[in-house]
Amino acid sequence: MALIKRLASMIGVLFCVVTITFLLIRMSPGGPFDGERKIPAEIERQLLAKYKLDGSLWQQYSGYLGDLVRGDLRLSTKYRNRSVNEILAQTLPVTLVLGGVAFLIAVIAGVWLGTVAAMRRRTWRDHAAMFAALAAISLPSYITGPLFILVFALTLGWFPAGGWGGVSHLILPALTLAAPAAAVIARLMRGSMVETLEMDFIRTARAKGVGETAVVYRHALRIAILPVVSYLGPLAAHLLTGSIVVETVFHIPGAGGFFVHSILNRDGFLLGGMVIVYCLLLVCFNLLVDMAYGLLDRRIKTHA
Amino acid sequence: MLDPRVIQRVRSNPAAVISGCFLGIMALACVAGPWFLSPSLGDPGLLQYAPPSLAHPFGTDLNGRDVLYRVLTGGRISLLVGICGAIVSLFIGTTWGLVAGYAGGRVDALMMRVVDVLYSVPRLIFILIAINAFNAGLQGWAASLGWEWLVGSSRIAILVVALGVIEWLTMARIVRGQVLSMKERQFVTAARALGQSHSRILYRHLLPNLAGIILIYLTLTIPAVIIDESFLSFLGLGIQAPQASWGSLLADGAGAINPIRSFWWLLVFPAGAMASTLLALNFLGDALRDGIDTRAG
Predict the structure, then answer these.
(1) Which of A54, A98, B26, B276 qualifies as a FRET site for A142, CA 20 to 30 Å off?
(2) Structure ipTM
(3) For A122, which residue in chain B has the nearest alpha carbon?
(4) b or e along A75-105 (b: 16 or more beta carbons within 10 Å of the residue's beta carbon)?
(5) In percent, how much of chain A has pLDDT > 90?
């Protein structure tokens, strides 16, 4: 029952996303076929008909909704004769690989750093980890990315400066994308671990003679990780947005570059399709996170 | 507004004091600095890509403009957008949180559900589209009213409002949490027993007690808005040339490093200015927050 309710609200959110995106794109000035040369009226009418841009606003909107339900994201108006589905099928896997690797790095590094800081509270390790975290939050990816390229690619020559191919191409962009997210997780993790380590069941475990490492990683981590789990949804949104910049900086042929160009080229259907697919991915991911949260924390069920 | 003990605690934190002083100097340099420099430094000149020297401490860029002058005027815009955007977010977030927390029940549940959903939607992406959608309209409207100043800076105005509109979520959550615990306290019950209206209780009794925590989250929202603004400007969709913000300067800098010849000063100086400002703001905000909430320290 709760699942059906969640699915209904998911569809509601997606409907709002589609409507807002459609209206915003329609409100943007200039048409997709405005160029330096004026197109004859007759040809322009045929172009508009081909790209289903004719008719009233309502007709266009309902037509677009219908196509979306059928899974058709329509044709790009800039990259003539290529469908948005086709462009996304080529570029989205790249973005998802980059985002997925960054996601793993952020979660593992963040949880580990936060736990170490909480275990060694008020020592130099704690202070160093938290200073590093604050620095990473204050350094957005368009600062760290070019600096990484300058130092590790151009000066030291350890990694390629950009492009896409093997694992070596993945390291710098994934680190750039993951660093601020790892920092946020480390801070969350430290706070909740400090609180958890003061709970009664931890004292019991210690009294039983369980070693400190086992206390932290076997007993406390399970509870302390809950705030991190509820941050995973916003984290995924953050990484998808951030990948736009990282792909631009490292010249990665992912979806992010098309995103910026589709705005500049007034390529409405490409832009709309990308926003809608991004939101769909995130909404589904959030559902998974919520279900995982419910499994991890049994108390939620008794409350609801 | 702030408990004197909090200020005492923050003053005993050296990192916070240094951050506060640094921010003061940075703000002064950005606002007043360009007045002391010759304004022709910001105009295109003959000296292209000159490395740092006495005449140009931060070097010059592609068009022969002085990078120091550009960093300072860019800082003006970045700081202006950051502060104004944070204030917009303060209004929205505080109102939303106050109403949700005070109303409670179903209204609260619904309003907080909206916050949850917005948290997990790529909000910046909508802002990207919205800026393009509204800019021309605002420019036309400003021109019809004869507001010359708004025609020139319509993008900044839109950025301020748009970024304020997306960065209010944390503020709303914090305020709501505080209101939930505060509305059960006796001074609120007393005010209600005296027959005061809801709006009067909200604005005369609850809001003054929230001022401290709102101020603190304002310090933490400013860097978030600055980061968002420079994200958009970096992609070329925020501040438009010849105006500059730290984000667009960074975009120029990132474009100027390549394997053949790296004009590193174009990247390093804007990056340094922006990173140190953000770091100082975050340090100060963190210290203030820890000053109020000593639990997790």
Answers:
(1) B26
(2) 0.81
(3) B297
(4) bbbbbeeebbbebbeebbebbbebbebbbeb
(5) 12
